């Protein structure tokens, strides 16, 4: 069992002014509270786009609109701090637009590609169909990262809302395999991607509210003793997650009630 | 071949008959008032029906993310004349898409002024169809992202529609846009319109307007209420009127108290916008504002919102908030009754996530629930578990009760228990301890009386999002 390293844990929500549209800022709060509830010394920073990104152990990058997404990516590439921090072992969770901009390239509203940070070997293009909007359930098997227990993550539940299609390159592994919903949308039934300690997903909810095991995996990575191998996960004290487990069970159960034919349909927006 | 105009008249007549028939059928079958069903039937027969029906009416439109229904009701009260008795056509059931507009017009008095609440996504279409005299634009913020789309996409569509408004010409009055200058998104949308009256109505929610819509720069907000882009010329325009505390201040410096029955600063802001829009409609600019203000004073509740009802002999105030900006404004309203304290009557929070609410509950994490720490909260509604998790991370103590009515009764019982304990010093919790020394609740005439010692007199508050609110009302 790996015990958490001593010292302060710093968590930063990246550019909430640009990438705060979909409630993903909640992920930062969830991580910070879960660390604090375990008696760990933790600091949660909101890192606005008009200030240099602070150094942190764990970054969350949320979903946002097309224009702000391009601005955030441009700023992050120019200042280079996030890429440098990852090189030093920082953990990153990217959601939706935040997932896309961690990749090699992503489209703006017109479909024109923009350079991403290159932290994940994924490429996003504008989908030809309607946006993928709805509940998503995906199972984590052999490809998924392992938790402190050595097991793969349990199933993921969340809400997706995106027009992008993300193709995975050889440098990443899928986070999960879609059971209901669309996910990456490139025809391989994958959802999200990860490599080292950088992990991207399309799931809102926020994703860590419904998937506390993923929250604890990210914390476990961030709290691994200095110099330990990338896949090392510190074992954290368990929390009484009754509210979260009830929500998770209710959401998974709700998806069981939906007829299979409807599950995979991409719904059209009314415009 | 018959002339097109005669063809259209026949078609429109058939469409109007269909609206009435479907509405009657729908009511007979117990499927509600049938407004939307009838409107849909009419539009299926004649897609131009809205334009046909609106012709010959003076039309005002109200749109924005929050406050549409209340503001529409206020503007209708202004147009109902000094005695409130003149006929006004309005979609007061909240059916705010074209089918609802058609239904309201088909059943309304011929030639009467029209006030339509318009869903944000349909504004362009309805502006084009109705050639309105006034378009009132309240605010724009994130809401139902799975349905309505992101704020910036919406604002660009508004801008295109409002920029295409015809300029006033002899014999053809133009459209006056009355817009909230404190919302940069609304300002960007209304800017290209030929005739805009800017109102400083305030904006509690600024998180969707940080990026400049003109150049991608950064909008900075000043304490005093102004805002500007740090990179381009885009800034808050000069206003013809602004809300300052409880007063509406006009450009000439005159102050007019906004005395309304509806609670909350956001309703005074809505009234301020209505005063300026109403003045345009009642053709008396300066005196019109004052007259319009006096006509909104008596609007008490709007489709049950802000209503106080009785439950087992206790007052329950019903409040509706649909999105982060709305919830933030409602928390301000709750705080107007006094700061959080354990002896405050409970808040019952109810969340659903049906199509009309938006199916993604992630927005709950944008709501500053941390402000409720120290209050007693009961979570209910179909998505009470999403709410419970949010409250847990806000570190707000809460109980979860499945059925909204049971949750309300639970809260009422808690209030009764607190009332019975009233008079015992033990009833004062630690959160209030610093400001209210033990025993202070026995004293009279303290400056803080409103926030303490009046527990029994204060209402349980029910806050629900759209369908959760509707569910509770029908359950009651």
Helices and strands, with pairings:
The complex is a heterodimer of chains A (271) and B (476).
Chain A: E1 9-14, H1 25-36, E2 42-47, E3 58-61, H2 66-79, H3 81-87, E4 91-95, H4 97-102, E5 105-107, E6 113-115, E7 122-126, E8 132-139, E9 156-162, E10 164-168, E11 173-180, E12 190-195, E13 198-201, H5 207-210, H6 212-222, H7 242-257, H8 260-263
Parallel strand pairs in A: 1-2, 1-3, 3-4, 4-13
Antiparallel strand pairs in A: 5-6, 7-10, 8-9, 8-11, 11-12, 12-13
Helix pairs in contact in A: 1-6
Chain B: H1 4-28, H2 35-45, H3 49-54, E1 59-63, H4 68-79, E2 89-90, H5 98-106, E3 114-117, H6 123-130, E4 134-137, H7 151-163, E5 176-180, H8 184-190, E6 196-200, E7 219-221, E8 227-229, E9 241-244, E10 247-250, E11 255-257, H9 265-281, H10 285-296, E12 308-311, E13 314-320, H11 324-336, E14 347-350, E15 377-380, H12 384-393, E16 398-400, H13 404-421, H14 430-433, E17 460-464, H15 466-475
Parallel strand pairs in B: 1-3, 1-4, 2-3, 4-5, 5-6, 6-9, 13-17, 14-15, 14-17, 15-16
Antiparallel strand pairs in B: 7-8, 9-10, 10-11, 12-13
Helix pairs in contact in B: 1-2, 2-5, 4-9, 4-10, 6-7, 7-8, 9-10
């Amino acid at each position: 069992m790996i015990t958490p390293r001593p010292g302060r844990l710093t968590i930063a929500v990246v550019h909430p002014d640009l990438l705060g549209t979909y409630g993903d800022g909640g992920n930062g709060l969830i991580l910070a509270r879960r660390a604090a509830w375990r008696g760990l010394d933790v600091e949660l920073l909101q890192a606005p786009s008009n200030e240099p990104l602070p150094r942190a152990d764990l970054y969350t990058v949320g979903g946002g609109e097309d224009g702000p997404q391009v601005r955030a990516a441009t700023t992050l590439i120019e200042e280079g701090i996030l890429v440098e921090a990852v090189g030093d072992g920082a953990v990153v969770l990217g959601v939706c637009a935040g997932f896309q901009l961690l990749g090699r390239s992503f489209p703006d509203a017109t479909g024109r590609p923009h350079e991403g940070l290159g932290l994940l070997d994924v490429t996003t293009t504008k989908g030809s169909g309607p946006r993928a909007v709805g509940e998503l359930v995906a199972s984590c098997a052999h490809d998924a990262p392992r938790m402190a227990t050595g097991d793969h993550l349990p199933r993921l539940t969340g809400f997706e809302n995106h027009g992008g299609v993300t193709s995975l390159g050889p440098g990443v592994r899928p986070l999960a395999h879609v059971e209901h919903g669309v996910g990456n949308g490139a025809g391989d039934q994958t959802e999200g991607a990860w490599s080292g300690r950088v992990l991207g997903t399309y799931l809102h909810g926020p994703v860590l509210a419904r998937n506390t095991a993923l929250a604890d995996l990210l914390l476990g990575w961030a709290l691994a003793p200095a110099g330990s191998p990338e896949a090392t996960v510190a074992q954290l004290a368990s929390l009484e997650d009754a509210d979260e487990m009830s929500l998770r069970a209710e959401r998974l159960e709700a998806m069981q009630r939906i007829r299979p034919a409807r599950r995979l349909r991409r719904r059209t927006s009314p415009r | 071949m018959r002339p097109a105009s005669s063809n259209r008249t026949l078609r429109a007549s058939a469409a109007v008959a269909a609206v009435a028939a479907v509405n009657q059928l729908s009511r007979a079958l117990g499927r509600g008032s049938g407004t939307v069903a009838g409107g849909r039937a009419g539009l299926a027969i004649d897609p131009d029906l809205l334009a046909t029906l609106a012709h010959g009416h003076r039309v005002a439109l109200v749109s924005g993310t929050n406050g549409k229904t209340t503001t529409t009701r206020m503007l209708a009260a202004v147009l109902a004349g000094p005695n409130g008795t003149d006929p006004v056509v309005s979609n007061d059931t909240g059916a705010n898409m074209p089918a609802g507009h058609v239904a309201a017009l088909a059943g309304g008095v011929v030639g009467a002024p029209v006030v339509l609440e318009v869903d944000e996504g349909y504004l362009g279409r309805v502006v084009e169809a109705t050639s309105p005299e006034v378009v009132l634009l309240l605010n724009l913020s994130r809401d139902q992202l799975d349905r309505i789309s992101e704020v910036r996409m919406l604002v660009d569509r508004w801008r295109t529609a409002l920029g295409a408004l015809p300029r006033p010409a002899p014999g053809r009055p133009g459209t006056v846009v009355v817009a909230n200058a404190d919302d940069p998104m609304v300002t960007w949308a209304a800017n290209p319109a030929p005739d805009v009256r800017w109102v400083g109505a305030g904006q509690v929610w600024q998180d969707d307007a940080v990026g400049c819509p003109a150049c991608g720069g950064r909008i900075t907000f000043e304490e005093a209420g102004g805002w500007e882009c740090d990179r381009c010329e885009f800034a808050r325009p000069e206003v013809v009127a602004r809300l300052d505390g409880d007063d509406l201040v006009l450009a000439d410096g005159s102050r007019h108290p906004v005395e309304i029955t509806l609670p909350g600063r956001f309703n005074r802001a809505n009234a301020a916008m209505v005063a300026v829009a109403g003045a345009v409609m009642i053709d008396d600019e300066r005196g019109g504002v004052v007259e319009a203000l006096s006509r909104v004073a008596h609007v008490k509740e709007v489709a049950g919102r802000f209503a106080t009802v009785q439950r087992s002999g206790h007052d329950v105030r019903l409040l509706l908030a649909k999105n982060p900006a709305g919830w933030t404004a409602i928390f301000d309203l709750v705080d107007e009754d006094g700061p959080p304290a354990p002896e405050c009557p409970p808040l019952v929070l109810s969340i659903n996530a049906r199509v009309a609410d938006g199916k993604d509950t992630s927005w709950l994490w944008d709501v500053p629930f941390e402000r409720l720490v120290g209050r007693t909260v009961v979570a209910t509604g179909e998505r009470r578990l999403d709410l419970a998790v949010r409250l847990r991370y806000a570190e707000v103590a809460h109980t979860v009760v499945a059925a909204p009515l049971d949750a309300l009764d639970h809260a009422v019982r808690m209030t009764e228990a607190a009332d019975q304990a009233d008079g015992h010093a033990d009833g004062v919790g630690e959160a209030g301890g610093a400001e209210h020394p033990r025993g202070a609740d026995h004293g009279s005439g303290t400056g803080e009386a409103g926030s303490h010692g009046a527990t029994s007199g204060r209402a349980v508050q029910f806050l629900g999002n759209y369908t959760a609110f509707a569910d509770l009302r029908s359950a009651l």
